[in-house]
Amino acid sequence: MIGKLIPEALAQAITAEAMRHEADPVRQAQVLNVLAAANYTVNEIAELAGTTWHEIETTIGLLALVDLGKDALDQGLLYVSLARHIAQLSEANQNVVLIRWIRGDFKNEAHATRYVQALIEDEGTVLGLN
Question: Where are the alpha helices (DSSP H) in the chain?
Answer without folding.
Answer: 8-19, 25-37, 42-49, 53-61, 67-74, 80-86, 91-103, 109-126
